Amino acid sequence: MIIEALQSILTPSALTAVFVGTVAGVLVGAIPGLTATMAVALLIPVTFALEPLTGLVLMGGVYCGAMYGGSIPAILLHTPGTPAAAATALEGYPLTKKGHGGLALKVSVVSSYIGGTFSTIVLLCVAPILARFALRFGPPEYFLLAILGLVGIVSLADEGELVKALMSGFLGLAIAVVGTDPISGGLRYTMGITDLFDGVAFMPVLIGMFSVAQMIELTGVKSIITDRTTFSKIKREKMPKGLGKFIGLGSVLGTIVGILPGEGATIAAFISYNVARQNSKNRKLFGKGNPEGIAAAESGNNGCVGGSLVPTLTLGIPGNSVAAALMGGLIIHGLIPGPELFTKHGVITYGFIFSLFLANLIFLALGLYLAPYFAHISLTPTSLLIPVVCLFSVLGSYAINNSLFDVFVALAAGLSAVILHKAGYSCSALVLGLILGPIAECGFAQGLIIGHGSYSIFFTRAPSLALWAVIALLLVPPFVQIYKHHRRKE
Amino acid sequence: MRRIIFIVMIVLIALPLQVQAKYPSRAITIIVPSAAGGSTDATARIFIKAAKNYWPEADFVVKNVSGSGGQKGFEEIARAKADGYTIGMVFTTQVVAHIVSKRAKYTLDSFHVMGNVGQDPEIVVVPKNSSITSLDELVKAAKEKTLTATVNGIGSDDFVAMRKFEEIAGVTFNMMPTKGSTEQKAAILGGHVDVSFMNLSQMHGQHKAGDARIIAILDETRSDLVMDVKTGIEQGYKVLMTAARGFVAPAKIDKDVADKLDDLLQKVLKDPGFIADCKKDSLFLLPMTGTQFLGYLKELQIDTQRYYNKNPW
């Protein structure tokens, strides 16, 4: 069956589909607002007309490509193409400003490749076992996982800015309160506006806070960098040493978070980034352009790709929104997720998994070869850059839900971000709060319901205890540092 | 000169009239109140494929307006220009639940109901290692200790079905609402809850694979997908619930145009290609005419209102 599966993807039509899908995915990922979820969903009607395998590998290619593509504008322009690349922007953009954008791109593509490939190997070899493991995660664990992500706010904060970072985080959580109460069904702070019933969507906020705000910031300069001298060296610039550890860390964490149903690449990237930051010898360099951060974040979000397909294919529980759209594509062809997918429809399923390896290879080649050319984007005069990015920002925020309201959300977020940034408040912390707030709230409330009102449910289950331990481990170093900082002051 | 201008103006005014006379002369937008890739979306796309056989020159465009439990989409259909170039889909129970909870800016009178196409019957599922195998055992267990039940959101078909069952069986569940069926699946497969009220399409694969157990289907007949599962009525609990998906148009639509659209829908519903496509995509057909579907919606609204009055959300 494995050989048959290999043969089935080595046909011209399948290979073309993988290639086209991956390239299109990179483009979709690179454009702020156009997400992998949207692209995969748009492809479903197209796949009606195609052979099941061709359609699937097309969608798989888009998924892999988009996850990597998001990092390109994040590094070069500080405008993450996908929410999962927001952590990459924190390290990539400072590198670009120092003239090492090409290097950052290379680190990003190599890490993405390794993360993606690792998770696909996991998907290929141990999917069913891991899926069972993921099922042990229930609402209490999702609450703790969200807390784990929120802990990142503490370590994202620069020294002495902790209070402001926490305030931004709480602001994000407060905005996340708007919308329908997940448990009672009641409306909170929606002011009768139907668009707010689902809460404030985080994508438009992200686009506003990163892309729009960044364009406003850039109005004062001619171009992001003016010094071309480093560009000739990009091809020969060596990869920094010691990244292996962080890529490995990101790959494993990304795959694990990916496997958990409903948890996305954004959380994977932020958690990997945060853990890397806590374990790095060059911790001081974080936030100022440390390739280690890019390595962890990018291997983390691409690790999610294979991971998210584990529960999707074995149990029919999509690992995240992209996997959910992909599952729609499977069902349309009569491929119902479950054991049959690996036996009766094994040729298609294994063919699809093999195509993911191929998609990773394609974007690796593409990324490495094109990095020097991509790097030139940061030389673009702002008079050209600003209108183009703003156009895509508006387009992207509209396209997510076909909603004009979201465009205004993006613009308002952009303006607020400029003010917050000037006052020293962290926009990443705010976005993190906004993304994780609803997950934490739902997990907390559902956990309490499952526990029949008793808080002990958060402390008695084995996975919960493990998560508490990780949270404690991540919180100790920053607080030790704060303590030392204060001692020195005295 | 004046005469020429007069004639030109007459022609200009008459031209669009002539164009209008031939319906449809441009693309018809179908508003789908959920995201692309879901089963409502798939229904619309399969419908279009079949509709082309009867209206070869007509074009259809799907517009996904998702969010707020379909409310954004329902409202957009209700306030669309009633020229026959915008129609849309509705799904239950959400379409009436929004009216009941006084959130909707529409009522059932805002629509010309064209008819129903598909459904997704409600099922009762327990984890695979649960000792419960029938509704009787479920009721017995629920009377011994409080069982946790998941439903997909407040006011959903799952929610109403659970309330109906509680009423008939005289039990009360510890209700855990989720955001989406993914959470429900994970909760059942992981054994985090005791029982789940959800839809057949979301669980039949897992039931066959032995990852979960469907103990009842709340439909009038068994489903050929899972023939071993007894209906609620067979087990002595007369609870009927399904997620129906049908087509509507804005209320003020022209009688002629409305008739044409209704006729198209009924033709598509009998189309063998359409029926085959639905089967392949695990979409369950439940053909209803406009009058039947409207009656169904009205009845459902009364039911939902009753649960809302007892315990508003």
Description:
Chain A is mainly alpha-helical and 490 residues long. Chain A has one domain. In chain A, strands 1-2 form a two-stranded antiparallel ribbon. Chain B is α/β, with parallel strands linked by helices and 313 residues long. Chain B has two domains: 166 residues, D-Maltodextrin-Binding Protein, domain 2, CATH 3.40.190; 97 residues, 3-Layer(aba) Sandwich (D-Maltodextrin-Binding Protein, domain 2), CATH 3.40.190. In chain B, strands 1, 2, 3, 4, 5, 6, 7, 8, 9 and 10 form a ten-stranded mixed sheet that branches. In chain B, strand 1, helix 2 and strand 2 form a beta-alpha-beta unit. In chain B, helix 2 crosses helix 9. The longest helix of chain B is centred in the last third of the chain and has 21 residues. The model of chain B has no long low-confidence stretch (mean pLDDT 91). Chains A and B meet through helix 3, helix 14 and helix 19 of A and helix 2, strand 2, helix 3, strand 6 and helix 7 of B.
Topology diagram in text:
The complex is a heterodimer of chains A (490) and B (313).
Chain A: H1 2-9, H2 12-30, H3 36-48, H4 52-69, H5 71-77, H6 86-97, H7 101-135, H8 139-156, H9 162-176, E1 179-180, E2 187-188, H10 202-218, H11 244-259, H12 265-279, H13 291-315, H14 321-332, H15 339-342, H16 346-375, H17 382-401, H18 404-422, H19 427-450, H20 457-460, H21 462-489
Antiparallel strand pairs in A: 1-2
Helix pairs in contact in A: 1-16, 2-4, 2-16, 3-4, 3-14, 4-13, 4-14, 4-16, 5-6, 5-7, 6-7, 6-13, 7-11, 7-13, 7-16, 8-9, 8-12, 8-19, 8-21, 9-19, 10-17, 10-18, 10-19, 11-12, 11-13, 12-13, 17-18
Chain B: H1 2-21, E1 28-32, H2 39-54, E2 60-64, H3 71-78, E3 86-91, H4 94-100, E4 111-127, H5 135-144, E5 148-151, H6 157-169, E6 174-177, H7 181-189, E7 195-199, H8 200-209, E8 212-217, E9 242-250, H9 255-269, H10 272-280, E10 284-289, H11 290-310
Parallel strand pairs in B: 1-2, 1-3, 5-6, 5-7
Antiparallel strand pairs in B: 3-9, 4-7, 4-8, 4-9, 4-10
Helix pairs in contact in B: 2-9, 2-10, 4-11
